[in-house]
Design goal:
Number of strands: 3
Strand content: 15-25%
Structural class: alpha+beta
Number of helices: 3
Strand order of the largest sheet: 2-1-3
Helix content: 40-55%
Low-confidence stretches: none
Order of helices and strands: EHHEHE
Largest sheet: 3 strands, antiparallel
Mean pLDDT: 92
Shape: elongated
């Protein structure tokens, strides 16, 4: 036998591209009660009470606020779920999504 070191071939792992992310955005309206918005944010996006209040207040002051960032499918599902909760309660609460840049 020879004394030559044989190194195993290195296997190149293909780089998987991360899926594009989408922002879920809360749009302000002048009719949905603030407390209800906080409840929806906590229920759908699992925020704390303080986080939900800050998001709601930012949307109220600026007209819109990014709630969270997810893959497209999850973002759209959560935006729809949150909007539907508002509609079922008779509020014009609206969440939308857009690609993150």
């Amino acid at each position: 036998m020879s004394d030559i070191d044989v190194k195993p071939e290195t296997i190149a792992k293909p780089k998987t591209k991360r899926p594009p992310l989408h922002k879920v955005i809360l749009l302000n309206d002048d009719y949905t009660p603030r407390e209800f918005v906080v409840v929806v944010l906590k229920a759908v996006f699992h925020t704390t009470e303080d986080q939900a209040y800050d998001i709601m207040l930012t949307a109220h002051q600026r007209g819109a606020c990014v709630v969270a960032v997810f893959t497209r499918e999850i973002a759209e599902t959560k935006a729809t779920e949150a909007t539907d909760l508002g509609r079922r309660a008779g509020h014009p609460l609206t969440f939308t999504t857009e690609p993150e840049e």
